[in-house]
Every structure is written in C-alpha cells, then in structure tokens.
Specification:
By secondary structure, the protein is an alpha/beta fold. It has helices at 3-16, 19-27, 35-47, 61-71, 87-91, 125-137, 172-175, 189-199, 214-226, 231-245, 265-281, 289-300, 308-312, 317-327; strands at residues 50-54, 76-80, 92-97, 102-107, 114-118, 139-142, 145-148, 154-159, 178-183, 259-261, 305-306. Strands 2-5-8-1-9 form a 5-stranded parallel sheet. Strands 3-4 form a two-stranded antiparallel sheet. A two-stranded antiparallel sheet has the order 6-7. α1 runs antiparallel to α9 (214-226).
Length: 331
Amino acid sequence: MSDTGITAINEKVKEESAFVAALRSEMEKAIVGQRHLLDRLMIGLLANGHILLEGVPGLAKTLAVKTLAAALDTSFHRIQFTPDLLPADLVGTQVYNPKTGEFGTRKGPIFANLILADEINRAPAKVQSALLEAMQERQVTIGQETFSLPEPFLVLATQNPVEQEGTYPLPEAQVDRFMLKVVVHYPTREEERQILDANARTDVSHTVKPVVKPDAILRARKVINDVYVDDKIKDYILSLVFATREPAAYGISALVDNIRYGASPRATLYLTLAARAQAFLQGRGYVTPQDVKSIAHDVLRHRVIPSFEAEAEELTADALITTLLNELPVP
C-alpha cells in the first residue's frame, strides 16, 4: 500500500477512535489497575469477538464487564450459570396463550448486546450447546423459529480455575469460539491500597455513565477492517500458528514433544483481527509485529494444548507460547 493510503487510514483511525480515551476513563472510575483486562475487553468489543475471563474470585472480572456495559449505551444481561440451568432459561421458550389457543414466543436474556455469562463452566452440555449457536451464528432457535441477535452482540464469560466441584469442562469446540482467553491476575500492592481506600465502606457505588453509542462501535469495526496488515506481518501470523502444529518444521525443538494439538485456523483469523484492533486502540492505521506479539497469548492460550510430557514438566500453554514468540524470527 502507498504512503498516501496509509496516511488516509491513519486519519480515519484517529477520527473514529476518539471515543477510546473516554471509554477507558469511564471504566477506570470503577476498576483500579487491570489495564490489560480493560484493553482486552475493548479489543473484543471492537473486533467482534467473544471473551473468556479466567481468574480466582474477587479480581473484578464481573465488575469489569458490568462497568463496560454501563459505559456503553447498549442493552446488557447478566446470566448466572448454575448446574440446574436449562436452555430455555437462556434463549427463551414458547408459551401457550389460552385466550388465543396459540403459542407465543417469550425471548430469554440472551437477547441483549452484551451478555455476561457468569461462571460459564457451571452449566451442563445442553445449555452450552444453546449458547454455542448464539456465539457462532449470532442467532437463536426457539421451537421452529429462528431469531437474529442484536448488533453488536458480545458474550463475555467468566470462569474460576480453582474450584472444580460442580463444574463442567467447556467443550473444545466452544472454547475455540472465544476470540480471547484473558487470565486475570492479582493487583499490585499499590493498586490494592487504592482499592482499599475507595471501597472499604458499606455503601460502595460507582457512577459510570454511558459515553459510547452502539453506532460508534459499528463504525469503528468498519475502520478496523481497513487497518493495513503488511504481507510480512501476515506471513508472521501464519508462521506463529503453523509452528504450534509443526514446531520441527520451524526449528523450534523445545516444542516438538510438548504440544499435543496446535492452534486452529480461527487463531490465524483472530490474531489478525485482534492485532488490527490493538493498532486501532493505539491510534494507528497499520499493524506492527509488536501488536501481534502483545495479543498472541490471549488468542493462543486456549488453542494450544500441552502434551502429557509438557504437563509432567509443569509446562503451561502460556510457557509454550512464550517459547514460540522468543524463538520464531520477527519480520
């Protein structure tokens, strides 16, 4: 692409990304620290990709999603997943009307722009399959009717990695539908002191106002599609994904016996989209290798399955991805 074309995209990105600072500022009224989490929520929103948040209880996962919803002028539903949840509790059902003698459709909480699926791994397989249709097809089938979900539509799911009693492992097919898997870590000592000063009271309330309209998000998504990705960057993304499947072919011997399954083609698509969204957040109209590297762990960690040998050596997917990023040449 010519310099003139990239300059035009840069100007477009700067114009359409003006809301990013306001959105981040509004969310930081309720969330102390967790900059990585807030940025990933915005990347998912801008790149039209669902997000799985994993972390121990009390790290503001649910609060972060609720704060994002409050800062957007969109509809929001929180669904608490439990072992006795039914698909109808999620998508809705048909209700008989004795006056007319006909069945009418009562839509469930899935019909909203933002869905918080809290503790998603507590629901059984039938509920997960109903959610899977909504996530992948962005539609819901109730009886013999199919209904489109509103745009934008985003599922933000949380799961607790510690407590396994009463939980169901998510099917690999569903996990792969999440663009990002974000691991939420403990705050620093300084951040936790700020949390203490702001929230150690009996009447905690955070006034977060809607600062972004849905139209702004949809316009931003169109601009993100135009963010320039050089052929060398595309080749780098392909090499990252293929090296998880064939590490020997890329000279990464440390991964040869340590990966059971590599990343799917969705990883290639999502790495590109997420890198474009990352560039957009930085106010740039082109993707750099650092954009790809910064998002790689979140896109790949739930798609790279360590082998039994790796697990025996306590090598996690994150450790394998770090090795991959360190050893694969950067353009």
